[in-house]
Design brief:
Number of strands: 7
Radius of gyration: 15 Å
Order of helices and strands: EHEEHEHEEE
Number of domains: 1
Structural class: alpha+beta
Distance between the termini: 46 Å
Mean pLDDT: 83
Largest sheet: 7 strands, antiparallel
Low-confidence stretches: 1-9, 99-103
């Protein structure tokens, strides 16, 4: 079984198209997954799985896991290169502890998409969209060691993330 097979767009152009569409789409009033199991939105955010590896239920050998992670890291690097050429150098946002958010108090609920991303990734690269109150973030996440790695794109409103000085 090849390391990457599920929900893979496979091409940077297709991944960019998803990001571009979500960056322009209005945020809905309530959370949901309209029409796509690999995308969801809510007040102030959109999230999309751009590429997903196989899961590791049957084989968690280091070779299989590392190969899958390296392929997604290569995809992330290619996509980040295009976004950097378009919007400039990204910010690195540490998601745990949740620095970069307006209120790092752990008792305060974290706004989406940061709540989800914080649960599956340690950091993300963020580009602030010009002439917009939105940001685009890319991360590789994994919810559990047996689950697939995912290349994730998050689009959020500026209220959910504090811009670094």
């Amino acid at each position: 079984m090849p390391p990457l097979q599920h929900r893979s767009t496979g091409h940077v152009a297709e991944q960019l198209s998803i990001i571009d569409r979500l960056s322009l789409r209005p945020f809905p009033g309530e959370e949901g997954r309209p029409g796509a199991s690999d995308r969801w939105s809510g007040p102030g955010f959109h999230l999309a799985v751009l590429r997903e590896s196989q899961d590791f239920w049957e084989d968690r050998s280091i070779e299989i896991v590392e190969a899958a992670e390296l392929e997604l890291e290569a995809d992330l690097a290619a996509l980040a290169g295009v976004l950097t050429a378009r919007w400039g150098v990204p910010e690195k946002v540490d998601l745990w502890p949740c620095t970069g958010v307006d209120d790092p108090d752990p008792s305060t609920p974290i706004r989406e998409p940061l709540g989800f991303l914080r649960g599956v990734a340690g950091s993300m690269q963020v580009w602030w969209l010009p002439n917009s109150d939105r940001w685009v973030g890319l991360a590789i996440g994994q919810a559990d060691p047996e689950w697939a790695f995912q290349l994730l794109a998050g689009i959020g409103d500026s209220a959910s993330l504090r811009r670094s000085p």
